Amino acid sequence: MLRLHPYVYHRPKSLKEAVDLLREHAGDVLPIAGGTDLVPNMKHGLFTPGHLVALKGIDELHGIEERDGELLIGAAATLTEVASNYLVREHFPALAEAAAGIAHPMIRNQGTIGGNICLDTRCTYYNQTYFWRKALGFCLKKDGDVCHVVKGGTKCVAAHSADTPPMLIALGATVDIASAEGARSVPLADFFVGDGIWNRRLEPHELVTAVRIRLPEKPIRTLYTKVRERKSVDFPILSIALAATVRDPDVLESIDLVISALGAKPRAIGGLDKIAAGKRLTAEVIEAIAEQAHRQCHPLDNIIVEIEWRRAMVPVYVRRALQDLLENGRGKAAPGDGRGSD
């Protein structure tokens, strides 16, 4: 049996109390919301904080509402709430699909959108028990100085494996961050960095408090799909998020394509406006976008799936996603119907 180490559990009632606790116990504290990823990692000895600061009892972190032309989602909103909320489903159905396809209902009922945004990176050589990691000699991300993925590598390449951030980036979302020193906001596209040890621009004493998405002035088409070893529970080994402004008849005004689960941060595919803006979404344009994604995506051997196959699947699933986007408009499919859960 994997046991938890001793720690002090704090249950603040306000955001101020929570950030004050994070400052007071700096270096030996972690926030916890749903705990669906943190607790298993603690059992594996990947994190051993002396203090945990619980966030679910803080009213300021809950709620989903329209405010000032934006959809505001509190960081403590559960994945089930995001997947089923009528505002999310009306304005950004693919975000609802992304949340609905995570793990299984028990995880979604407990896990939060803020926790999914801040999900720790994953790697074959990291997400193991202490005994397993010690026998191997540890790794660059935890307790060691050797990267087992990139021999001689000096930067961790553990993979970003969260579902909602790629879709949120494609939608141009912003995250609100609070600390005892004050508050700030960061576009989610700038929130992640390419370091698998700590892949986000978030100091240990800071909290993500909300995610905001500007309500579109023009109708947009959105889609999220992913590949995983099983059709439920597993983390993605490839995920694709699309958001496009389309002018009839199927003329692209703009397109954002974000691909994740291949490296330490989601990758926004560049150069698409030059390829597709002002053009109809024909087979030729779809193929050009798929090839652009293939050129820019280079997975590493950080999970137990061949990297050649993972890279080969990038253009395949981009083509499928674009064709689906073309045929199904805004993609208002109900969670669980198979779309976005492959």
From TrEMBL:
UniProt keyword Flavoprotein present: yes
Keywords, comma-separated and alphabetical: FAD, Flavoprotein, Oxidoreductase
Keyword Oxidoreductase in record: yes
Q: GO molecular function of the protein, one example?
A: oxidoreductase activity
Superkingdom, taxonomy of origin? Bacteria
Boundaries of each FAD-binding PCMH-type domain copy?
2-218
Q: Transmembrane segments in this chain: where?
A: none
Q: List, alphabetically, the Pfam families matched.
A: CO_deh_flav_C, FAD_binding_5
PROSITE patterns associated with the record? FAD_PCMH
InterPro entries, from UniProt?
Answer: CO_DH_flav_C, CO_DH_flav_C_dom_sf, Diverse_Substr_Oxidored, FAD-bd_PCMH, FAD-bd_PCMH-like_sf, FAD-bd_PCMH_sub1, FAD-bd_PCMH_sub2, Mopterin_DH_FAD-bd
What name is this protein filed under?
FAD-binding PCMH-type domain-containing protein
Species of origin = Candidatus Kutchimonas denitrificans
